[in-house]
Design goal:
457 residues, alpha/beta, Rossmann fold, 2 domains, seven-stranded parallel β-sheet, globular
Length: 457
């Protein structure tokens, strides 16, 4: 069996791994580290929880150590792009932990916090910078950061970047990078648009796929409960009281829905907290810390905020709302069964979400076992509008009305509404439109912002 000592890493890195209690690399680490340490580009297809952060952090730190040198003022040598604040912070923490015995500097920048402190941090330059796209462009736009000195570039969670509308900002960032650099590209799924972007960025890459594209974690037990929308609240309380969970992560499609679910669970005797893009960064960090430490056992999250929730011991994931982007299902259930543990994923599906369920099963190439708890109060199936497929763009299922738990009290039972889910990006007259920065909250400075057409997390 391969050990970290077999991968040619510098002694200070091996010492840090010993401090962390790591001896045996995961499959993606064993396959990626030697090639990345040798300077090759990498295309990695891996789910969350497979150890991909160490798969790029360790060899990049090794390269910096071997090459020597210092960053220039207002610059960085390694740039890592992440879709969310939580994931960016987590990646930076990993670089600091693995590089604790090296004389290297690192920083993380993202929106939702004052920019001036970040500008001061970058004054003397840093070896490793982890950033979200919106805030990074703010910093370069204010000439507080120069990207021409980047030697190694990492694009993490590329499929989530696509779903969040970050493709154009990514292209803006890449245009500022030097032509000669090492590129690492990671994605849990590989739809056509992501494969095209990878082809543009990478040169003769080492390809590492530790799981089949769009597969779900093998150790996750999955099931679907068909339910009338109005019964979801009671069913969630029943399920959580029945399954004997240790830590449970509940997914809502909207920010308002996440808050309401958390309030309902708390009133039903199951204390819960919500995390989403409308929460301040301090609130998000405190809530996530309480969940990680076990002081909060139920966390309700939206898809955007959930990126970066790398918490061992999540025994159950509950999809209160099925995602309208099928790839998000893979990411959601990947939050359980981490580090070799088992986990269970339970999804609620009402009549308006049946099209979403079919898309998910098509993507993962398996039928999820189902249980019928409907009382016959809703239509059996809502037909899905025909959608063209000739424009080369990824297709998304229609968005249901969010009336399945009484949140839209004006909706009439039996007449569900639907419209295609889409994001609207509009600039501020000074440049290209920029999506809501890594949490669904508009970033009002820099090169523009996205006004969300739907208040998704």
């Amino acid at each position: 069996m391969t050990q970290f000592t077999d991968l040619g890493l510098a002694e200070p890195l091996l010492r840090a791994l010993t401090d962390e209690g790591y001896t045996t690399p995961t499959p993606i680490q064993a396959q990626a580290i030697p090639g990345v340490a040798a300077g090759r580009d990498l295309l990695g297809v891996a789910q969350t929880g497979t150890g991909k952060t160490a798969a790029f952090a360790l060899p990049l730190l090794h390269r910096l150590h071997e090459m020597g040198g210092r960053p220039k003022r207002k610059s960085c040598r390694v740039l890592v792009l992440s879709p969310t604040r939580e994931l960016a912070s987590q990646i930076r923490d990993s670089f600091r932990a693995y590089g604790r015995h090296l004389s290297l500097t690192s920083a993380v920048v993202f929106g939702g916090v004052p920019i001036n402190r970040q500008i001061r941090t970058l004054q003397n330059g840093v070896d490793v910078l982890v950033a979200t796209p919106g805030r990074l462009l703010d910093l370069t736009g204010q000439r507080a950061l120069d990207l021409t000195g980047v030697e190694m570039f990492v694009l993490d969670e590329a499929d989530q970047m696509l779903d969040m509308g970050f493709i154009q900002p990514i292209r803006q960032v890449v245009a500022q990078l030097p032509k000669r650099r090492q590129n690492l590209f990671f994605s849990a799924t590989m739809p056509g648009d992501i494969a095209k972007l990878a082809g543009e960025l990478l040169t003769d890459p080492l390809r590492v796929a530790v799981t089949p594209v769009a597969s779900t974690a093998e150790r996750v037990s999955q099931r679907v409960i068909l339910v009338d929308g109005v019964d979801k609240r009671g069913l969630l309380t029943e399920v959580l009281n029945d399954v004997g969970f240790d830590r449970a992560l509940i997914f809502s499609r909207t920010k308002h829905g996440a808050d309401k679910i958390a309030r309902n669970l708390t009133s039903d005797g199951l204390p819960a907290e919500a995390i989403h893009g409308n929460k301040s960064q301090g609130q998000r960090e405190r809530t996530l810390g309480a969940f990680r430490q076990g002081r909060v056992r139920v966390l309700v999250a939206t898809d955007i905020a959930a990126r970066g929730i790398d918490v061992d011991g999540i025994t159950h994931v509950v999809n209160y709302d099925l995602p309208n982007v099928p790839e998000s299902y893979v990411h959601r259930i990947g939050r359980t069964a981490r580090a070799g543990a088992d986990g269970e994923a339970i999804s609620f599906c009402n009549a308006e979400e049946r099209a979403y369920l079919k898309d998910i099963e098509k993507l993962i190439r398996q039928q999820i076992p189902s249980e019928d708890r409907r009382r016959g109060n809703e239509p059996e199936f809502m037909p899905r509008p025909k959608q063209g497929r000739g424009n080369g763009k990824s297709q998304r299922s229609p968005r249901p009305a969010n009336n399945d738990s009484g949140w839209n009290k004006g909706s009439r039972a039996g007449k569900p509404r639907s419209r295609p889910a889409q994001a609207n990006s509009r600039g501020n007259g000074r440049g290209a439109g920029k999506p809501a920065d890594d949490g669904g909250r508009p970033d009002m400075g820099g090169v523009g912002f996205m006004r969300e057409r739907r208040r998704a997390g």
